[in-house]
């Protein structure tokens, strides 16, 4: 029997219960939320990122050559999308359902969660299957088992099909004992059988949401149409993020965004004093987001 991913309906209908979604995430490691974004939001994001996508070079040099092999020669990457698309920063990154899920998945282990990564990935025709991986492997020094540290998603900005590279997901793999931290370890460890892999086929505006420990990867694109999607993930507020979001969205730009976006981007202090801990990220003994609000950054 081929693996499947549980699907939840359009949140606008009121049937996407965050408790039910969080329970499915805990059980399976992944869910699909259909029509999460209205098509007019999809269209606006696509319009706002179009110039950046056109300018992106699939063969750009990475800080580590293994990253080029990981993404392949036909993938255009646009990092720092919250700093490029205001619609993405406000209507996607701050989507109420994403935040409700983060409240349930991440807040038990932190005083505040934050944006980890907001990238657009356009996998062009000819793209091969990406290596299966866990996103939380970026914090590979954290011993396992550990609490949930990340909530991730891939959002479709065109229709996702198996032929154009819909994300491959291994439901239940967030519970597997193997580490899956590097390509070498992946080659040496157990690999999913074909019937353990599900394909996140979904219309534009939908999202596959998954745990940082869930094994997944981009699919191969055997069509002649680019597959455009966004990787949007959140992590515990006391972790270092995969992208430096404060440099990606500097204060003069962040100041134009709503406070929710500023906080997610990392401008807010991580204040654990009320939880018996300390504080992280202060500036001049104050909460940087307050300085930003007052025009003092």
| Poorly predicted segments | none
Q: How many alpha or pi helices?
A: 10
- Quick one: how many beta strands? 12
The major beta sheet can be summarized as: 7 strands, mixed
Strand order of the largest sheet: 1-2-8-5-10-4-3
The radius of gyration computed from the alpha-carbon positions, rounded to a whole number of angstroms, is 19 Å
Pattern of helices and strands? EHEHHEHHEEEHEEEEHHHEEH
The CATH first-level class comes to Mainly Beta
Count of distinct structural domains: 1
Distance between the termini: 56 Å
Q: Which range does the strand content fall in?
A: 15-25%
Proper CATH architecture? Sandwich
Task: Please tell me what the overall shape is.
Answer: globular
According to CATH, what is the topology?
Answer: Jelly Rolls
CATH superfamily grouping: q2cbj1_9rhob like domain
Can you give the mean pLDDT?
A: 91
